[in-house]
Amino acid sequence: MVREMNVKNWNDRKTSKKGTLAEKIVENKILVPHNKVFYKAISEGRHPFDYLIYDYVTHIIIPSDVKAKPKMDYYNGSGIDYKHYLKYKEISKNINKKFFIFFVDECMGEIYGNYICELEKEVLEPNENNRKYPYIFNTKGGDRIILFHMDNMKRNLYKITENEITELKALNTRNYSYKD
Predict the structure, then answer these.
(1) Domain that holds residue 116
(2) pLDDT digits (tens, 9 = 90+) for 110-119
(3) Arithmetic mean of pLDDT, 156-172
(4) Cβ distance 102 to 111 under 8 Å?
(5) What is the pLDDT at residue 15?
(6) What is the 3 state secondary structure string of the chain?
(7) pLDDT per residue over 115-152, tens digit each?
(8) How far is CA 124 from CA 76, 107, 144, 151, in A?
(9) How far apart are CA 88 and CA 25, in angstroms?
(10) Which of 16, 45, 160, 175 could form a disulfide with 7 if both were Cys (CB 3.0 to 4.6 A apart)?
(11) pLDDT score recorded for residue 178
(12) Is residue 180 part of a domain?
């Protein structure tokens, strides 16, 4: 039996607050200034993705999600839950549109990201004994994570301000400190 987390508890979680802050940064610093029309879920709580973005220049609709996750310390990549990756792939296939992921990284002080089809391109990392990316691993808690190599990211979509970095770091839930 699956138990649904109620909306109040969901919105009170640090990870949810950090995600909401990251979404607002993407909206205010990338989408609005670049004249993108975006549609968000209006229901509270969990949702399968954050935006449908419409580009008036190219007339393309882009499903996308925002991840408030810094680059990993010991890998040359940033990642997401594997189950989310599979959901995004399913959405992309069902609507025949490329799916874009924004990574809001308070440690590198920038927003980067790309379409999943670009993130999936194989990269061998020589500094990690030629580890092949995308790289999938299991966490100690049993979750699966997929990492995408930084070479496949569109970098510096926006430089995060010191104030935004401070706000994001205050909502960090990792059980270890990031390298600065």
Answers:
(1) 7-170
(2) 999 999 999 9
(3) 95
(4) yes
(5) 79
(6) CCCCCCHHHHHHCHHHHHHHHHHHHHHHHHHCCCCCEEEECCCCCCCCCCEEEEECCCCEEEEEEEECCCCCCCCCEEEEEHHHHHHHHHHHHHHCCCCEEEEEECCCCEEEEEEHHHHCCCEEEHHHCCEEECEEEECCCCCEEEEEEHHHCEEEEEECCHHHHHHHHHCCCCCCCCCC
(7) 999 999 999 999 999 999 999 999 888 999 999 999 99
(8) 10, 24, 20, 10
(9) 22
(10) 45
(11) 44
(12) no
How many domains does one find in the chain? 1
What is the token pair recorded at 109?
């002080």
CATH number at residue 11: 3.40.1350.10
Contact 160, 103 (CB under 8 A): no
Please tell me whether the peptide bond between 33 and the residue prior to it is cis, using omega within 30 degrees of 0. Answer: no
pLDDT digits (tens, 9 = 90+) for 91-111: 999 999 999 999 999 999 999
pLDDT for the residue numbered 8: 55
